[in-house]
Amino acid sequence: STQSTWGVSRVTIKKSKNILFVISQPDVYKSPATDTYIIFGEAKIEDIAAERGREAAQTFKPPTSEAASASKPAEPEEDDGEEVDDTGLDAKDIELVMNQANVSRKRAVKALASNEGDIVNAIMELTM
After folding, report:
1. How many Cβ atoms sit within 10 Å of the Cβ of residue 101?
2. What tens digit of pLDDT does each residue of 29-63 get?
3. Cβ proximity of 128 and 51 under 8 Å
4. Greatest CA separation for the chain
5. Rounded to 5°, angle at Cα 128 from 41 and 103
6. Per-residue model confidence (pLDDT) at position 110
7. How far, CA to CA in Å, does 118 sit from each of 17, 67, 77, 125?
8. Is 43 helix (H, G, I), strand (E, B) or coil?
């Protein structure tokens, strides 16, 4: 019989040097006989390098009066309309890679295919 653990607001699991799986507001249970924990919740991917890059970019932003006139909204790269073979790949995985890496469907499919469908490695390939 496991016991519910109180006071845990976030669980992070390190996948690689810069990628974390983060579970906010998890349900955590501990086995009384061992140091084994069971964690339930929705895991989200967090890219530490991308976060640091965004923070660094914030420090180099021009004053807001210039930023309003000089900057234009970032546009996702153009998809050239070429059909791309997504056989064996899950549509939700493709969409997740597109959103996390901010790339076209074509690039997301190619990255997933070259990483044998591994979402985390596909995102890392596109963002590192």
Report:
1. 20
2. 988 888 888 889 998 888 777 777 777 776 765 55
3. no
4. 63
5. 75
6. 92
7. 17, 38, 22, 11
8. strand
> What count of other Cβ atoms lies within 10 Å of the Cβ of residue 39?
14
State how far the alpha carbon of 4 is from the alpha carbons of 27, 28, 38, 92, in Å: 8, 6, 9, 32
Are 105 and 94 contacting, i.e. CB atoms less than 8 angstroms apart? Answer: yes
State the first-to-last Cα distance of the chain, in angstroms, to the nearest integer: 43
Mode of pairing for the β-strands spanning 43-47 and 10-14: unpaired
- Exposed/middle/buried for 7, CB within 10 Å: 0-12, 13-18, 19+? exposed
- The residue among 76, 115, 112, 118 whose CA lies nearest residue 94 is 112
